[in-house]
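Input record (one chain):
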Amino acid sequence: MSRKGIPRSRLVLGVFLAFILAAPVVLPEFQVTLLNYIGLYSIVALGLVLLTGVGGLTSFGQAAFVGLGAYTTAYLSTVYGWSPWLTLLTGLALTFVVSVFLGFISLRLSGHYLPLGTIAWGISLFYLFGNMEFLGGHNGISSLPAISFFGLALDTGREFSYLIWLLVLLSLLSMQNLLDSRSGRAIRALKGGGLMAESFGVDTARMKIVIFVHAALLASVSGWLYAHLLRFVNPTPFSINAGIEYLFMAVVGGAASVWGAVVGAGILTILKQWLQELLPKLLGQSGNFEMIVFGVLLVLLLQRAREGIMPLAVRFFPASRTPIPASSQALPQRVRPVVGELLLEVKSVRKVFGGLVAVNDLSFTMNSGEILGLIGPNGAGKSTVFNLVTGVLPRTGGEVHFRGERIDTLSARAIIPRGLARTFQQVHLLPTMSVLENVAIGAHLRGSKGAISAALRLERAEEAMLLAEAARQLERVGLGASMHEQAGNLALGQQRILEIARALSADPVLLLLDEPAAGLRYQEKRALAELLRKLKSEGMSILLVEHDMDFVMRLVDRLVVMDFGEKLAEGLPQEIQSNPLVLEAYLGGIE
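The corresponding structure, as predicted from the sequence alone:
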């Protein structure tokens, strides 16, 4: 906080805005031009922050989308005399179509194949621009008209600067709005949390297309501005080298930070200009030596500050805790089944991995209002059964019915709205997100607003309801005091409780817990057992996989014992404890 009580971050933002307003008036022409280029590059780098830094999808081809926006406005405005504003809309429409097509064919790739794919189509579009005669070939298109803004012709760099930075600020605002939303949580879950996100209804394939198209549209806007700033375009600025530089900017500034796009664009643009002047004097010859220095600096940066410059800077500007938005109404609750009603029916389910039979014709039933334990030695197939019931894995044979409906043919996204929610054997959290936001992911399908509504901040009422529900579930499980902490800072026991809260946010009638007590200390296990008893008393049905026999026997109503993928025994805890087959195969004869 500053001395007058104004947060430092707001003070810095105010100084930045004042600079943007004054700079075109007071700075020399060359520096205004440099500032304009920083703005143009910031818009493209912002798209890469979303695509690469947040979504985890590396792209080297963004310069091609910049060229698509630039060439669309250059051709239509010079050949047909279209208004630049109309060419902007046309360029965005064309970029949308091209990016959707390229997204569908590129995002099916994974690992190093994805960036290689983006290099391939980036090079293809670059050569397309240079070899189309109607686009002027390698000579390009000149004499583009100036943009008029409410009757004012923006025909100089000083006047144009205000339009560039207005669009930069609007892009930053819309991006922050998007990431601070239901869709934003789904996007942030793409990087390292895909399985968990799918299990709570997030269509990860669709979200990848959304952020790919979003980044492409931002690049197209930058290309439109670039074309009318210079009043000339040719293919050179849209090569794969430019695509690499854009990615450098996002990484240097902070690939997961919205404002890192501006910081990275500013640092690299100024540094490049400075090195272009300095290195020829030091070396006594001309050349693109600045790229060599960039490479060395990037390696050093990745060694010392892998998250980029912006995360280091924000340590000096601690963010204030944003209060949970007040919601006048709660999310609707599903109708609960009657206690004793047949809830889950597993019929001769079978799963084969190659030559390994992981689950072999397993059958059992579960009624509403009970806690059913699924136990067995390591490798017995218990977690595989969980994955079959929840749609994470396709079954080889058999059927799964939930509340009378067959669900084994459905995907995980289609199963969770029917009232099943799960935790995982290995904790699946987003460690850099707050506890509250992690839990809100569980309520993803209880909202409906999309990315466009989020970017325009039109979903605040729904967002308030989702966050209020997440807060209610955290209070319910005893983690209310930690809701603003980063999830990665919690102890393992708290993280497992957090996973239960996230599952509860989906409003399930059946809770599937995969080894929730694994790795917990004695007191943490007692607290977990009390929580599960409390949930049962509130009408929740629980299917539990666990290895701790003392924990299980004191908690469950019935047990199903598995061994080598088959059902070994089923019954009450006291019956299982005295079953000779179970004692031999699982308990090793220990009472």
